[in-house]
Amino acid sequence: ADMTGSGTRTIDVTVTLVGDLQPINDTRNRTFGGSTGHYITEFPNLETFDSIVSVGSGADGPITWEQDPTDPLFNQWFYSIGGIDHTTGSGVSAYVPASAPQYASLLGPFVDLTMNNNPRLDFWSQNTNGSPMPSNTISLDIVLLTSGTVITDVGGPFLDLPALTWRNHGVDLNAFAGQLIQPRIRVDSSFALTGSAIFLDDVRITDHPIGPGQAPQPGQAMFEINTSVSPGGLALSFLETGPYSAIAIPGSPLDFRFEGEADQPIIVLFGNYNPAAATYPNNIGQMDIGGTPSPLTGIPSGLTALFDGTSLLGLNPLFRTDLQGESLIHFITPPLPLGLLTTFQAAIYNTTTGIALSNAVQLEIQ
């Protein structure tokens, strides 16, 4: 049969037995996409693997996911049911064991990005190896369907340490906007310790809006409250433009997390959200809160400093990055009025530009 055209195909397999009195169960079928058809065109598209009903090496995966036929025969993905699962803890995830040195690749669906402006792919993975070296790695490759070209390590390789923790990896697909692609998740366990494995779950492809605010600046100024998300619903690690949003519940944790240069003071400001209220040169960034900038200082009006890491008074000395360039400050959310509280933005000192502005975070009390 010719299966090179677009569309779906159904294969029927029938087994007959002389004297069989129940022929109703003699036939099984499976439907799958044609090699140039069945494209994903609606976003977001999420694969949880929870539709899988059989386990083991080479087990049937979701209809648009398959083992890479170019891999060696025994280099395969397995599926875990009721074990390690990112979404619910009792669902399904895909994994590659490290019992033998191997590469194993999982081909995803055909994806049509011809109408996409800001495509992204993110996935969650977990490494069960408790030793930092040697260990598994996981990467995202992209297959260009018009030419068959495989571009490796578009995202990764990711090491996923510390182990036994689900980690989110986001990959910018803007370079492939307007094209027909196929994602390939590839695990290299060639140097992993025997018995460790790497798990994969919740693969999501999105085309989301771009915010008008300042983006996080890796190594200079990144800021989130609790678990903040971009306008497209992505984590801070995606480095999307802001404003980011966060939720806090009275009586529950209120965590301020910062990243910048090591051992530098942090100033936390708040004010009305006003994207690009002021823009500064030399990669300092833009201020997304406040009113009209002062003609003398260039600083927007209406800003309030909640904490100032350059001061020795009160809690201010806590607002300073540690020797790894990070800071996590934990509070309990007070009984604040419900609804949008305000918008926060951090200014973190550094030795390059003097200061850098983080992404803004809008905090809602629920």
Describe this structure in words.
The chain has 366 residues and is mainly beta. Helix content is 0%, strand content 43%. It contains no helices and 24 strands. It has strands at residues 8-14, 27-33, 45-47, 66-67, 78-81, 92-97, 103-107, 111-112, 119-127, 137-144, 150-158, 167-172, 180-188, 197-207, 222-225, 244-248, 253-259, 266-271, 273-280, 285-289, 304-308, 326-332, 339-349, 355-365. Strands 3, 5, 6, 9, 12 and 14 form a six-stranded antiparallel β-sheet that branches. A hairpin with a 5-residue loop joins β10 and β11. Residues 2-7 have low confidence and may be disordered.
Number of strands: 24
- For the termini, the CA-CA separation is 58 Å
Task: State the secondary-structure class.
Answer: mainly beta
Low-confidence stretches: 2-7
* Oligomerization state: single chain
Give the proportion of residues in helices: under 10%
The fraction of residues in strands falls at 35-45%
